[in-house]
Amino acid sequence: MRPIDLYLRALAECRTENDFNRLHISIETFSPPAEFAAIADHSEREPLPFQAMRWIARTRAMLAASGLPIQPYGKEELAPGVHLYRDHASAPEDRTLVVAFAGDAQRLMLPITVFLQHCPADRFAFLVLRDFSRCYYLRGIAPLAEDFPSLLAALGRLVDRSRFRRTIVLGTSGGGLAAVAAAIGLDAEVGIGICATSPTLEDPRMGPKGLTFAPFETLLARRSRPLPEIRLTYGADCHRDAEKACALADLVPARLQPVAGVAAHNLLVELGRAGRLRSFLADLLESAT
Fold it and tell me: Which of 46, 136, 155, 254 could form a disulfide with 249 if both were Cys (CB 3.0 to 4.6 A apart)?
């Protein structure tokens, strides 16, 4: 069944405001721009409930801010919590593979629909990981992997990275530290942590779960092979994120990239509101390719 048909079926079952919100959050979390565009196009032929039309207008404005035509990413679920977004019309060897570790909200700070729209599909493919246990990926992604080392091994079985021009690893918020460690473990060219934490800073959620940052610390201390280029970016006026970035840079050589004029943790949302998102992502990703 086409995504638009699945959406219309789910929409017909919505009764409360929360029902509509849950449906639209799910779409924003997993659907590429073209799937949203099909919903928006349908709404022009057949008006939908007010809650849907309001969401479509808001999301359409965020996509339009990219200044790009709808980016033709397809979506393929490789395993629960692991999706590959790529344009099948472009050859892998022409693109950079971005292995992306989502944060606790299962997003790259933004709806994936919006994030992908700001990244040209003829230059990038995204392997997006989501840790539904919210454990910094230390418990892997069930049932694919039970811990972080086995998750890295599983990624090698899921995607042949050698087919792509280059691999960079990116993570936002709760996925940022995992991305930096994964960049080292996967021998990627570049690792990017957006508002990432450091294993030296205590997280009170770890102890009750019986978890430590030891798997990350082992990788961060590795010097047996050349390290990838590590970049840590955050809002320059978000003092907590600046503290985390400096602490992480004490453990592994990294370039600190504070973004002026941003005081909030959710850097990408703030840049989107300011109309700076596309240029920021271009500088961050294109310069890494």
Answer: 254
H or E segment and range at residue 276: none
Domain with CATH 3.40.50.1820 in the chain: 74-286
Report which residue type is found at 114.
Answer: V
Superfamily of domain 74-286: Alpha/Beta hydrolase fold, catalytic domain (3.40.50.1820)
pLDDT tens sequence across 15-26? 999 999 999 999
Q: Which of 229, 227, 226 is nearest to 287 (CA)?
A: 229
CA–CA gap between residue 168 and residue 191 (Å, rounded): 6
Burial pattern 103-126, b for ≥16 Cβ within 10 A else e, equals bbbbbbbbbbbbbbbbbbbebbbb
Say which amino acid occupies 88.
H
289 pLDDT above the threshold of 60? no
Rounded Cα gap, residues 252 and 67, in angstroms? 37
Task: Tell me the CA distances in angstroms from 191 to 77, 91, 194, 285, one per residue in order.
Answer: 23, 23, 10, 10
243 CB-near residues (< 8 Å, 6+ apart): 201
pTM above 0.90, yes or no: yes
Paired residues of 169 in beta bridges: 99, 191
Using alpha carbons only, how large is the chain's radius of gyration in Å? 19
pLDDT, tens digit, for every residue of 58-80?
999 999 999 999 999 999 999 99
Determine contact, residues 193/241, Cβ cutoff 8 Å: no
